[in-house]
Design a protein that fits this description.
This protein is α/β, with parallel strands linked by helices and about 625 residues long. The protein is built from 13 helices and 29 strands.
């Protein structure tokens, strides 16, 4: 699997800087339109992934983009791109240096390349010119966007605007989300270069977990062919994304670094030797023994980009989980290390232009709170688009506060508000805690003057989470189908507490789980009902103006979301009743969260449900 290395000769102790006379050597790709990815390739030193000096550390490319009006000004980090087509050629050598811009404004943009060199210049900066295209200037003329929904380019960038929902810059809409939190090892896919079938661990068993995504071959659409690579590779994983889109989902998450974790085979780095990696992964020592910690696999990352580009067209929110719990301390537990800085710089340079995403600092974490703060600040400073930054943790432990697994209250109490650059929280919660804890952190953050965007991205016990649907072929009754439970205590519980949404976690004891899953149809019914909830919010509720007001009813098991004296939304669980007293005249409609059907209006008198199943009451003031 190791790619053949083209040999170059470099001086071991010095580097000869050559100032090329052809300063206009550049290539601009992409549609020159608002919100579109515009790529500029510059011709720099001929080098390779394993060359000395190290192209990932010795050189630093930043491009300053300035709109003709003077604002905005974006300093965008660039990266080494080998031959500029490595997703198809698997090239590890070349002289292309690349930057991606997603312009937020039409008109003329001037740019100036800053190409610097020096020991660890990529991490610590440098004022030493690397020659070649350093100082090169140019101009782009950006026209109006012409894309239609669900394409993210029609929505514009999803931004943190100091409120509890992220907001699309073009349409002004606030996002509510639902999608897949699993499988966390989505990118452990056989069609990506340099992706090995090493060992992962599920309980006491060591497993090989390389994915084919074959169950989603049926969901691939021929219009996606431009996003495949190497004569048609990638179709199945593109099909998986299209399936989620067809089900009405708008988010999915994935690890970008899981080395020495449950499935230790997701990483952007170069492997020293295939066989060494496979042996080391079984010992949970791959980071230490088998990866080159400051060099990256250019073609693999270019292939990841193909997948993310396609997801953009389907309106997907990209949830970058940048570390797994077992991996998060590999680059240091208390200090923002050189390797951690370099890793985030590579992710930001290659992927931050995507319009809807968050940087999650770790799937669960046990690193020092100060390191969380330092990392969030580093990302916020480096990312030119100021994308959403969150932290995920272990769930609250009602019994004890384990020093090895500090609960999320310890972390969030020390991070909320202006104590950190975080703009939200990615909650892992026991099902009985979801509504109250989402509500708690929505309110606690608002009191600081810096509201967080709160999502429930892992629900229930790790063993069950969101189980397989009873009518899916993989279902064997190992764990009971919990569709009804998830609909109430996870989905509606989150949304009616003021949370932005959910991503569904596939429990590790399920037949199709967080590691071995390759078929999202295993949770089709849950996704179908999640779509109904999103549709309801978008069609009927001014949700960005509403608050949790559970105290308005007497039943502690229902959820009340309201804009007082105007509109009330109440979820009433199965076999429960509720009462609500209102002054004035109101209409009520009953919404079936199982089918997505809305009943007709009638004058509100009481909260008598149509039957004993769970229902959502929509109560609006008469006009």
């Amino acid at each position: 699997m190791i790619k053949t290395i083209f040999k170059f000769f470099f001086l071991s102790s010095t580097i000869l800087i050559i100032h090329q006379p052809h300063l206009d050597a550049q290539n601009i790709q992409g549609e020159l339109k608002k919100w579109h990815k515009v790529t500029i390739d510059f011709e720099g030193p001929m080098t390779d992934e394993k060359a000395m000096p190290n192209p990932f550390t010795y050189y630093r490319l930043d491009v300053l983009f300035t709109h003709e009006s003077g604002s905005p000004v974006l300093l965008v980090p660039g990266f080494y791109a080998a031959d500029g087509n490595s997703q198809n050629t698997s090239a590890i050598y070349g002289n292309k240096w690349r930057v991606h811009l997603s312009p937020p404004k039409i008109g003329k943009w001037q740019y100036e390349a800053r190409f610097k060199a020096g020991e660890d210049a990529a991490v610590v900066g440098s004022t030493i010119s690397a020659g070649y295209f350093d100082g090169q200037k140019g101009e782009l003329v950006i026209k109006e966007n012409d894309k239609n929904l669900p394409d993210n380019r029609a929505n514009g960038r999803l931004e943190y605007v100091g409120k509890r929902y992220l907001k699309y810059a073009e349409t002004g809409e606030y996002m509510v989300k639902a999608g897949a939190d699993s499988p966390e090892n989505m990118l452990h896919f056989q069609d990506f270069d340099g992706t090995l079938d090493g060992y992962g661990k599920l309980g006491k068993d060591y497993l090989k977990l390389l994915k084919t995504w074959v169950p989603h071959a049926q969901d691939y659409e021929e219009s996606a062919s431009q996003y495949t690579w190497k004569d048609g590779k990638g179709k199945n994983i593109l099909g998986a994304i299209n399936y989620l889109h067809k089900m009405g989902m708008n988010a999915f998450s994935f690890l970008t670094f899981s080395v020495d974790g449950d499935d230790g085979c997701v990483y952007p780095h170069l492997v020293k030797e295939d066989s060494l990696f496979i042996r080391a992964s079984q010992e949970s020592k791959a980071w230490e023994k088998a990866l080159i910690q400051d060099r990256f696999d250019v073609s693999k990352l270019a292939q990841w980009e193909q997948v993310f580009d396609y997801a953009e067209t389907k309106g997907m929110f990209l949830h970058f989980k940048t570390f797994e719990n077992e991996a998060v301390s590999k680059m240091g537990k208390s200090v923002l290390s050189r390797e951690r800085k370099l890793y985030y710089r590579e992710l930001i340079a290659r992927f931050s232009h995507h319009l809807a995403l968050n940087w999650n600092l770790s799937e669960e974490t046990n690193v020092d709170v100060d390191l969380v703060k330092q990392t969030a600040s580093y990302i916020r400073h480096l990312d030119p688009y100021k994308n959403h930054v969150v932290q995920h943790t272990f769930p609250f432990d009602h019994k004890k506060d384990n020093a090895e697994r500090p609960n999320f209250r310890y972390y969030y109490d020390n991070l909320v508000g202006f104590q950190s650059e975080l703009t939200g929280a990615s909650l892992q919660l026991h099902k009985e805690d979801i509504h109250e804890q989402v509500k708690h952190w929505v309110k606690a953050s608002e009191l600081t003057g810096k509201p967080w965007v709160i999502c429930n991205d892992e629900q229930g016990k790790a063993s069950d989470g969101v189980t397989v649907d009873f009518d899916h072929p993989s279902y064997i009754g190992k764990l009971k189908d919990n569709t009804d439970e998830i609909r109430g205590v996870a989905l509606w519980a989150t949304l009616l507490a003021g949370g932005m949404g959910v991503e569904y976690y596939y429990g590790y004891q399920c037949e199709s789980n967080d590691l071995n899953n390759e078929d999202h149809r295993s949770r089709a019914r849950k996704y179908e009902q999640a779509k109904y909830a999103l549709d309801f919010f978008r069609k009927y509720l001014p949700y960005n103006e509403m608050l949790s007001m559970d105290e308005l009813t007497q039943n502690p098991k229902d959820y009340v979301f309201a804009k007082k004296d105007e509109i009330y939304c109440i979820y009433i669980p199965a076999n429960e009743q509720s009462t609500l007293s209102l002054k004035g005249k109101y209409d009520v409609q009953w919404y079936d969260p199982r089918s997505g059907k809305m009943g007709s209006k009638s004058s509100f008198k009481n909260l008598n449900k149509p039957d004993q199943k769970d229902w959502v009451a929509l109560i609006t003031i008469k006009k």
